[in-house]
Design a protein that fits this description.
Elements: E1 2-10, E2 13-22, E3 28-32, H1 39-46, E4 54-59, E5 62-63, E6 71-74, H2 88-93, H3 104-121, H4 137-149, E7 155-159, H5 167-184, E8 187-191, E9 204-209, E10 212-216, H6 218-221, H7 224-231, E11 235-240, E12 243-248, H8 250-255, E13 262-265
Parallel strand pairs: 3-8, 3-9, 6-7, 7-8
Antiparallel strand pairs: 1-2, 1-4, 4-5, 9-10, 11-12, 12-13
InterPro entries: AAA+_ATPase, ABC_transporter-like_ATP-bd, ABC_transporter-like_CS, Metal_Ion_Import_ABC, P-loop_NTPase
Protein name: ATP-binding cassette domain-containing protein
Domain ABC transporter: 1-235
């Protein structure tokens, strides 16, 4: 996927401009930044749901457009009504030619095979036939990953897929996504505030703050100088026992989604 000279504005407010980004097949890029910095809007541009103010966006070899079957999308974790009758297997099935009707007998048989296969890949076979509302957040999110994989995408766009999950499920979902990109050479763009579970997996980081951005390898971006420049206030990045600790003023820590004036980032190799 690629953006060239990309600018996105709403009225007088520019979220980002002059953004050039190329994500290669098999590359894992994390998108970080405070709320309102344009992270989700970036995904909407690539999904064809939002037009750029200027510049170009291409994904899976074509201009960004809605309904591109080469793109898999994993949304934020949201609460589901316990009374919703939709089963997990039916949710996953929406990812297989979900925009088409009248698949025919052969098409339906193929659809069932694909659904069963991706459910098995994410380890959800034991609960896939249960109503979604009866499942835990981690179980629901595994099924959302399966839904995104059902169309065999070459690109995965992930919008806070770890939100509201406990640490064990954050790591599990992260590993499922990473395994897909490694086995199928799938490009991954991963919006998150929960950087710790994915930091060992990430190739590059795109950091968006207040109309500015930085792109680079984690050790190039997650530095005192870069974060201080972006937030326009002093932010320190320290290494403690093989882990990175980000320390700054209250405003910067709020923007980083932290509490207590510090944030720990697990070490990457």
């Amino acid at each position: 996927m690629s953006l060239a000279g990309a600018r996105l504005s709403f009225g007088d407010r520019t979220l980002w401009e002059n953004l050039d980004l190329d994500v290669a097949p098999g590359e894992f890029v994390a998108v970080l930044g405070p709320n309102g910095s344009g992270k989700t809007s970036l995904l909407k541009v690539l999904l064809g749901q939002l037009g750029l103010t200027s510049g170009t966006a291409h994904i899976a070899g074509t201009a960004a457009r809605a309904g591109n079957s080469d793109v898999g999308y994993i949304p934020q974790q949201k609460s589901i009504d316990e009374g919703l009758p939709l089963r997990g297997v039916e949710l996953v099935g929406l990812g297989v030619d979900g925009h088409r009707w009248g698949l025919g007998i052969r098409g339906l048989a193929r659809r069932r095979r694909i659904v069963a296969d991706v459910i098995e890949q994410v380890g959800a076979s034991a609960f896939a036939n249960a109503p979604l509302g009866s499942l835990s957040g981690g179980e629901q999110q595994r099924l959302r990953v399966a839904q995104a994989l059902a169309g065999d995408p070459s690109v995965l766009l992930c919008d806070e897929p770890l939100l509201s999950l406990d640490l064990a499920n954050q790591r599990l979902v992260s590993k499922l996504i990473d395994r897909r990109r490694r086995t199928h050479n799938t490009a991954v763009l991963f919006v998150t505030h929960e950087i710790n579970p994915i930091l060992p997996l990430v190739d590059r980081v795109l950091y968006l703050v207040d109309g500015q951005f930085r792109i680079g390898r984690p050790r190039e971006v997650m530095t005192s100088k870069v974060l201080s420049d972006l937030y326009k206030t002093e932010v320190d990045v320290l290494e403690v026992r093989g882990r990175l600790v980000v320390v700054g003023t209250g405003d910067a820590m709020d923007a980083l989604g932290t509490a207590g004036g510090h944030h720990v980032h697990e070490e990457w190799r």
